[in-house]
Amino acid sequence: MPPANAFLKNIAPQGNFVASRQTASKSSGRYEASSIDFISSFYAVLNRWRSETAFESDPDSITAHPSFAALVEHADIVCPLIIQDLRMAPSNLVWVLDDAFPNETTYSPSDVGDFVAMSNGWIAWAEMNGRTL
Q1: Contacts 24+ apart (CB under 8 A), 28-36
Q2: Most buried among 30, 80, 81, 103, using CB within 10 Å?
Q3: CA 119 to CA 23: how far, in whole Å?
Q4: Are 105 and 91 spatial neighbours (Cβ–Cβ below 8 Å)?
Q5: Dist CA 132 CA 52 (whole Å)
Q6: Distance separating alpha carbons of residues 118 and 115, to the nearest angstrom
Q7: How far is Cα 129 from Cα 70, in angstroms, rounded to an integer?
Q8: Nearest CA-CA partner of 73 in 84, 85, 82
Q9: What is the value of pTM for the model shown?
Q10: In whole angstroms, how far apart are CA 96 and each of 11, 62, 73?
Q11: Contact 115/94 with Cβ under 8 angstroms?
Q12: 87: how many CB neighbours lie within 10 A of its CB?
């Protein structure tokens, strides 16, 4: 017997199925999304982008990642979460806001490349425009 089957046999011997039990919950059988789901999804995409580009140094490669595109696409909705993240640790996450809001000028051209200055510019913009938590 392969090892995996032996493991499963030890956990749940064949033929011993437990009948489903009634619960106190009254479910309509339909799932309704919550804000927690959306926040979890945002952080899953953000963490994927960060982990899969962690050793990249080329900005074009970093911004070509599919998770970056997803962040940009939903930046209008997740802007407060992005701002909260930038407050904790200035990062290249400012590039998401740069691409999502191309008509906004939140920092001077001399600040390009300085993630602290760029983050502070976006944080100030967000506070002035009611886009914070």
Answers
A1: none
A2: 81
A3: 49
A4: no
A5: 27
A6: 5
A7: 23
A8: 82
A9: 0.74
A10: 47, 11, 9
A11: yes
A12: 15
Tell the residue number behind the tokens 């992005």, with chain if given: 82
The residue with tokens 């209008």 is 76
Alpha helices in 2-130 (DSSP H): 3-11, 35-52, 59-63, 66-73, 75-88, 94-100, 115-128
- Given a contact cutoff of 8 angstroms between Cβ atoms, the answer to whether 74 and 38 are in contact is no
pLDDT tens, per residue, the chain with 133 residues: 444 443 334 344 444 444 555 655 566 677 777 778 889 999 999 999 999 999 999 999 999 999 999 999 999 999 999 999 999 999 999 999 999 999 999 999 999 999 999 999 999 999 999 999 8
Q: Which residue has the tokens 């993630």?
A: 115
Instruction: DSSP for 19-36, please give it.
Output: PP---S----S-----HH
- Name the one residue in this structure whose structure tokens are 């976006």: 122
